[in-house]
Write a structure and sequence with these properties.
By secondary structure, this protein is of the alpha+beta class. The protein has two domains: 121 residues, Nucleotidyltransferase, domain 5, CATH 3.30.420; 77 residues, 2-Layer Sandwich (Dna Ligase, domain 1), CATH 3.30.1490. It has five helices and 13 strands. Strands 5, 7, 8, 10, 12 and 13 form a six-stranded mixed β-sheet that branches. A five-stranded mixed β-sheet has the order 3-2-1-4-11, with helices on both faces. Strands 6-9 form a two-stranded antiparallel sheet. Helix 1 crosses helix 3. The radius of gyration is 19 Å and the shape is elongated.
Length: 234
């Protein structure tokens, strides 16, 4: 029997392909993997295919694990993703930049994003650039004092309806979504999808990108991660 702390479950979902992969957390060896390819005359996600695929494979996985699958990480490839860039500025600061100030700017940007694009779910929040006294930084430099600085922030979003459809499909199998991720975003960190795509997905979930702001549940917020990446209430 596999303890649920020892394995991770990933589901790749695109208009032409579905992959289910279960991997050990320690060495990322494959416990189970299955995939299907199908022709699709449109660019829309096929939820009937997803339902059938899960119906065929979830019981197999649970039998191998000797355990129930309770959560799945969903990697989606679709043209329905929408990206929005927002710049937030802080003038006449004249102090060291700290996490509280940055979080304030991120929360303000998130509020603007939610007002601008309604009926959308934020999937990723990424800090693209730190502009500190007219100097650009890819990452926040330590102990940086400045007069003015700004953040360039990207929001990667999906329609609420699509997210709810994913959640509803998984609920049929008593499974919840651990995290939804953009396949295009993960592609930026891998050279070959067939080699380490799901391993990199796991690393990204764990905070591989220091400039990604993690949306965490208010009830289960975990402290102590700030040295690796930002946490923000969803």
């Amino acid at each position: 029997m596999e303890n649920d702390l020892n394995f991770e479950v990933f589901l790749f979902f695109s208009p032409e392909k579905i992959i289910l992969s279960v991997n050990h957390k320690t060495d990322f060896k494959i416990i189970f993997k299955d995939e299907i390819f199908f022709e699709n005359t449109s660019s829309q996600l096929n939820f009937n295919k997803l339902d059938s695929f899960l119906n065929e494979n979830i019981f197999k996985v649970e039998k191998i694990l000797g355990n129930f699958v309770e959560k799945i990480n969903i990697i989606i490839e679709t043209s329905d993703f929408f990206n929005l860039q927002i710049s937030m500025k802080k003038h006449n600061h004249n102090e060291n930049i700290n996490s509280s100030i940055i979080l304030y700017l991120i929360k303000s940007a998130k509020y603007q994003c939610e007002k601008t694009i309604q009926n959308m779910r934020i999937i990723h929040i990424l800090i693209d650039n730190y502009l500190i006294d007219n100097n650009h930084f890819a990452e926040l430099p330590p102990n940086q004092k400045c007069k003015n600085f700004s953040l360039d922030i990207s929001f990667i979003c999906l329609p609420n309806e699509l997210v709810k459809h994913v959640e509803k499909t998984l609920k049929k199998f008593q499974i919840s979504v651990n995290q939804i991720l953009s396949a295009s975003y993960i592609d930026k960190y891998v050279n070959d999808r067939d080699i380490n795509f799901f391993e990199m997905t796991s690393k990204i979930i764990g905070g591989h990108n220091k400039n990604e702001v993690k949306l965490v549940n208010k009830i289960s917020k975990n402290k102590g991660f700030f040295e690796k990446f930002f946490d923000l209430f969803s």
